[in-house]
Amino acid sequence: MIGINQPYIRLELLLMIVAALIGLAACAAPALTPRPTPGPVPGRNVTIDLVAQNLTFNMSTITVLESASVKIDFKNKDDLVAHNLAVYRNLACGQAEPIFVGDTITGPGATVYEFTAPMSSGSYFFECDVHPQYMNGAFVVTVP
Length: 144
Ligand SMILES: [Cu+2]
Hints:
- The chain contains one helix and eleven strands; from the N terminus they run αβββββββββββ.
- Strand 1 and strand 2 (about 55) form a beta hairpin.
- The chain is globular, with a radius of gyration of 21 Å.
- The longest helix is centred in the first third of the chain and has 22 residues, at about 5-30.
- It has one helix at about 5-30, and strands at about 45-55, 55, 60-65, 70-75, 80-85, 85-90, 95-100, 105, 110-115, 120-125, 135-140.
């Protein structure tokens, strides 16, 4: 008689659990085609003045070209309040993939964030990770 304590039965159960976890992981992170990180492209450098004040950003949409070198001059004008800028791509299953996550700074203060925009045009979003419900907007990547 074969019982659950047989080593190969336990191995089979373990493999079933691993397969189920891989299935969940596939939902959380769908396979994305890896692309090489582009180098700076002349004429695609953009500087954006982003201000956080009274728990809001001074813009609701940031638009850049594909693969643009993005420089954000970020000012936090809220005394003793922490803000940052982060850009994400929406994934299936309610998940979001970070494109860029800036360090949080406490106001009053300023910093410069630099990152490369995604190579694929489309609609992404940005937010302050401390106050995502108040401070968010569309990060639009367009073709030249
Ligand atoms: Cu904030």
